[in-house]
């Protein structure tokens, strides 16, 4: 049973983009995850957490290191324009319409966001840096 682990302060979660961090799964494999604000920002329900991978091609990162683009309160995959709801993670438009992002459980307490997921452990903020450069994921498409 994983203890809750502080990710960042709530004020660091941008209103129009995403906050990127790294987690490790039960096997120790590193993955990226994003925090997304979806409300006024003071309760658990105002912050969502998803693995940072599109449901169209799951090797494609939504946040490529500078924050994922957002429009009308939805996260957009820059590769083929899929839209994902920030509260449910459902793809509402695009090639993977109807699919859901993988959710990680987080809690908010005293202005800080904590990872509270039994399957993932917080590693650090920022992108995974040891899997090649950040542009390598988009080169896969060409
Ligand atoms: S990889 Fe995200 S929409 Fe195609």
From TrEMBL:
Keyword Iron listed: yes
Gene3D superfamilies documented for this protein: Rieske [2Fe-2S] iron-sulphur domain
Assigned keywords, A-Z: 2Fe-2S, Iron, Iron-sulfur, Metal-binding
Record-annotated Rieske domain positions: 44-115
InterPro entries: Rieske_2Fe-2S, Rieske_2Fe-2S_sf
One annotated GO molecular function: metal ion binding
Name this polypeptide is given: Rieske (2Fe-2S) iron-sulfur domain-containing protein
């Amino acid at each position: 049973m994983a203890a809750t682990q502080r990710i960042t302060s709530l004020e660091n979660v941008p209103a129009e983009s995403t906050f990127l961090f790294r987690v490790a799964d039960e096997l120790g494999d590193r993955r990226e995850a994003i925090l997304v604000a979806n409300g006024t920002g003071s309760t658990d329900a105002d912050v969502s957490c998803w693995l940072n991978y599109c449901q169209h091609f799951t090797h494609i990162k939504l946040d490529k290191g500078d924050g994922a683009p957002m429009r009308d309160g939805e996260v957009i995959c820059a590769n083929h324009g899929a839209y994902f709801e920030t509260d449910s993670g459902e793809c509402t438009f695009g090639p993977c319409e109807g699919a859901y992002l993988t959710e990680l459980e987080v809690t908010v307490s005293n202005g800080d966001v904590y990872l509270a997921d039994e399957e993932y452990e917080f590693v650090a903020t920022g992108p995974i840096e040891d899997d090649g450069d950040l542009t390598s994921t988009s080169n896969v498409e060409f």
